[in-house]
Amino acid sequence: MKDVMGIINLHDNGTNIKELTNHRPIAAIPFLGRYRIIDFVLSNMVNSGIFNVGVFIQEKPRPLTEHLSSGEPWDLNRKKDGLFLFYPYYNSSNSLYMTEIKSLKDNIEYIENSTQKYVIIAPSYMICNMDYNEAINYHKQSKGDITVVYKKVNNAREDFLGCDTLDVDKEGRIIGLSINKGDCDEKNISMEMYIMKKDFLIKLINKALELSALYSLKDTVTYFHREIKINTFQYDGYLECINSISAYFAKSLELLNIEKAKALFKEDKPIYTITKNNAPTKYGKDAKVKNSYIANGAIIEGTVENSIVFRGVKVEKGALVKNSILMPQCRIGEGVYMENAIADKNSVISRVKNVVGIYGEPIVLEKNSIV
Hints:
Helix content: 10-25%
Shape: globular
Number of domains: 2
Oligomer: single chain
CATH architecture of the largest domain: Alpha-Beta Complex
CATH superfamily of the largest domain: Spore Coat Polysaccharide Biosynthesis Protein SpsA, Chain A
CATH topology of the largest domain: Spore Coat Polysaccharide Biosynthesis Protein SpsA, Chain A
Strand content: 25-35%
């Protein structure tokens, strides 16, 4: 897709996942032992042949920029096009711009100077493994102004809470937008993925700023939906939205199910990330591991069940970790019992011997916690 540029929009609402976003954006949250949330949308773009990708960062950029670096793992360290990072800055009123429309306007030269004719805009927290080519080709053939990608789900009452939903007519056009409040099972969940011509995006940005400096892209599309032709493209593959602690916890552990994992991870569409040269995991003579993902560089001397263990974690002798997520460099001390919990990076649990949460509401130990 040489005629398509990608924009990853990180203007997300982290209110319900703030324990993990106090030091990082949602896009930089560690996921499933070795990835970051942003790896999925980045991999989708390069697997779809999109090699001009702009990442619009809202705040706390350091963890994300360290992870992305030059973009080499995604083949985006290129002389022509490649990976472009756009950092937040303070405006004249000494406050961060509030919407993605404002940040796009402040970096409009990037869009104007691109050689591509089309743009696909996507968030980071919609986890899927999608070839964008089919949706992009549909948009080109439909001759609409915007194509919005969505998935029809039957689990909206429990999942996708707070996500945008679409009312779609028989011709596939949007006739209304709302928020999923969990009032019924079946919903058309917007993946917040927009496809349009580059020139139309530039016009949309300028129109939005004429209306309000606080208008988001979604607000703008909603405002103009009767004046412009907005089509939809229905996606039917794996999709989860990581927009809360409960969603992050539940959807991570669900991927321990091999059938769930196969729906997300595909041989012909690999998910790329940074490779680190850690030593293999070391298992002590009394170690017991059941239905868990253990990354390299870990040391397991105790028991781990139905859990995700990242690089460099140490579970000491006599410790039992169950239904939990241990991020990089955590240490679980001797005799500790841990269940339904998330330990962020560099956390140490040794003095408190019982750390037990509820499966749907896990205990979260923030980064660098000592318990």
